[in-house]
Amino acid sequence: MPEVKCSVANCVFWGSGNNCTADAIMVDVDDNWNKNYEEEIGGEFVDTDHQYSARISADTCCHTFRPKRS
Where is the DUF1540 domain (predicted)? Predict the structure, then answer.
């Protein structure tokens, strides 16, 4: 898996050096921000059946994010 950098320090997958420690990363278009995925890979819910297009990086979002518990 490639190195994935993330600056969202309140995510359970955030690691030192701003590294993502998730087993799988789900990135989607912003229009799907509230979509619930049913397929699971490495403990992460993902969607491997659909393909969407984004114009620019700001049109995308990471669905792997899970907030840390206080």
Answer: 4-65
